[in-house]
Amino acid sequence: MKNLYVGNLPHSTTESELRGVFEAHGAVEKVSLVTDRETGRSRGFAFVEMTNASEADKAIAALNGTELGGRTLTINEAKPKTDRPKTGQRFGGGGGGRNRDDYRGHARQPREPRW
């Protein structure tokens, strides 16, 4: 079993169309077209699971760089999320703001009134 990443897909591509392209090179277990959560529109990439690893390698060799719907496909073995390099943080980030009462281990002294 091998999971393949298929990138630069035309947004009009259907799962059955993609399955047909890959079944020409071997048995396809599953096709997952990635869609936008809010709009439901294709995000332009998919994952194809092929049962036989050698057939999957042949499909990569045969289809990577070919055109589908006027777009050049990018096909390679899918990497698990944990193996991908981080490209920056999406949330938060920024400095380590300290608690206002944290005076580096010293208790905060009350101020004298200014009047």
Briefly summarize what is shown.
The chain is α+β, with helices and mostly antiparallel strands. It is 17% helix and 27% strand.
Structure description:
- With 115 residues, the protein is of the alpha+beta class.
- It has a domain at 2-79: 2-Layer Sandwich (Alpha-Beta Plaits).
- The protein is 17% helix and 27% strand.
- It has two helices and six strands, in the order E-H-E-E-H-E-E-E.
- It has helices at residues 15-23, 53-63, and strands at residues 2-7, 28-35, 42-50, 67-68, 71-72, 74-77.
- The strands form two sheets. Strands 2-3-1-6 form a four-stranded antiparallel β-sheet.
- The protein is elongated, with a radius of gyration of 25 Å.
List keywords for this structure.
27% strand; 4-stranded antiparallel β-sheet; 2 helices; two-stranded antiparallel sheet; Alpha-Beta Plaits; 115 residues; alpha+beta
Shape: elongated
CATH superfamily of the domain at 2-79: RRM (RNA recognition motif) domain
Give me the CATH fold name of the domain at 2-79: Alpha-Beta Plaits
Content-based structural category: alpha+beta
Q: How far apart, in Å, are the first and last alpha carbons?
A: 79 Å
How many DSSP E strands?
A: 6
Helix amount, in percent? 10-25%
Q: pLDDT under 50 segments (min length 5)?
A: none
State the CATH class of the domain at 2-79: Alpha Beta
Oligomeric state, counting identical vs distinct chains: single chain
Tell me what portion of residues adopts beta-strand conformation: 25-35%
| Sheet with the most strands, sense and barrel status | 4 strands, antiparallel
Strand order of the largest sheet: 2-3-1-6
Average pLDDT, rounded to a whole number, is: 85
